[in-house]
From TrEMBL:
Keywords: Methyltransferase, S-adenosyl-L-methionine, Transferase. It comes from Parazoarcus communis. This is Methyltransferase. It comes from the Bacteria. The lineage of its organism: Bacteria, Pseudomonadati, Pseudomonadota, Betaproteobacteria, Rhodocyclales. Residues 204-318 form the Methyltransferase small domain.
């Protein structure tokens, strides 16, 4: 399959370059050259009109310009107040869809500032940083020059820094290092739930959709002799293997590339699926959004046939979708019952992240009521 190409006119000559977008965004149709002489108002206007800006100036000035455009893309206080008042008249589900539309529009505008990347991930601009290590981690070895949005490129660099630093997991007594495109366990409340729930057995556990491998590692730390962790994302598989090796648990955790369940049965099957039933618009959103609750339904439909007698399935799920009107509690209970399962117990915890108490958040009403639950399920 041929890589998409970006086309533009520069100094009266037709030019093309390979286009790269992790979210699958097509190359912009209109491209204009831009440098240090361009002001933020002009850049914002052009971006809103759908004209991309291929940067030829100083790299650090490009970052400053992107920040200035981002400020202009934020709703004005009076406009935001009108939107908040209007949102009070719509359903929670409609408010959520309006919020996502607004976020998508903002992402489209900020994605219009483009950066050329040369061989071996060099940037042919003044004061450009060395991003080669970050790009190799995110994209793999260089396959030649391309053009990418500055917003995505800065995300790659940020992910690299977070990967080096890692996230401290008190229950593990260690750090977990998330790779680019793999959701970081920054919301630690679900880890708390898994750390405290009584284990139904310690011989074998399955960790479905392992991501960084944090829950697989936690189960080993709690004394489970063997864990099989699965995921279908190549990035997640590489990330989980990296973390398990760092923790010295390779002899106890097997990592498999598969959709949902491995072969066999276990006394414990853990799953922390994406919490919101909506389509993902970017790589990282795949850890948050589960279209039509596909993973949730798949876990519940296959759980009973993968449990040993007396075994339990632990479903870790936020009720944010319920407060947003995207999925009902009745739907979840019906899915549990129709798949031959029963609820043994349920424990819950309030989120600790800052957005839960941010009254300026468009979804504050739902976020402030959110609870994350660990549903202990068994064959009926």
């Amino acid at each position: 399959m041929t890589d998409p190409q970006l086309s533009w006119i520069e100094q009266d000559e037709a030019c093309t370059a390979r286009w790269h977008s992790e979210s699958g965004t097509p190359p912009p149709r209109r491209v204009q050259m831009a440098d240090d002489t361009m002001n933020a108002d002009t850049a914002f206007r052009l971006a809103c009109e759908g004209t991309a800006l291929l940067w030829r100036g100083d790299f650090q000035n490009a970052r400053l310009l992107l920040q200035a455009v981002a400020r202009r893309a934020e709703p004005k206080p009076k406009k935001a107040a009108r939107k908040k008042a209007k949102a009070a008249d719509v359903t929670p589900a409609h408010a959520f869809h309006l919020y996502r539309q607004s976020q998508a529009q903002r992402a489209r505008i900020l994605g219009m500032l483009l950066i050329p990347v040369g061989e071996d991930y060099t940037i042919p601009l003044r004061r450009a940083p060395d991003i080669s290590e970050a790009c190799v981690e995110a994209y793999g070895e260089s396959t030649g020059p391309f053009v990418v949005s500055l917003r995505e490129l800065l995300g790659v660099v940020s992910a690299h820094e977070w990967r080096k630093k890692g996230v401290e997991i008190p229950e593990l007594g260690a750090r977990i290092h998330a790779h680019y495109g793999v959701y970081s366990p920054v919301r630690g409340e679900y880890v708390d739930l898994v750390a405290k729930a009584p284990l139904p057995g310690k011989a074998l556990a399955f960790d479905i959709g392992t991501g960084t491998g944090v829950l697989a590692a936690l189960l080993v730390r709690r004394g489970v002799a063997r864990v099989i962790a699965t995921d279908q994302s190549p990035r997640a598989i590489a990330c989980a293997r990296d973390n398990i090796e760092r923790l010295g648990m390779s002899g106890k955790v097997e990592i498999e590339t598969t959709d949902l369940f491995p072969d066999g049965r276990a006394s414990l099957v853990v799953c922390n699926p994406p919490w919101l039933p909506a389509a993902a618009s970017s790589l990282l959103e795949q850890s948050v959004y589960d279209p039509d609750s596909r993973m949730l339904k798949g876990f519940l439909s296959g759980l009973a046939s993968h449990l040993t007698p007396g075994g339990e399935g632990w479903l870790i799920l936020s009720d944010l979708a319920e407060h947003l009107g995207l999925r009902s509690r009745e739907f979840l209970q019906e899915e549990i019952a129709k798949n031959g399962l029963k609820v043994v117990a349920r424990t819950e915890i309030r989120p600790r992240h800052s957005r839960a108490t941010d009254e300026s958040d468009p979804l504050h009403h739902a976020r402030s009521a959110e609870m994350t639950s660990l549903w202990r399920l068994a064959a009926a």
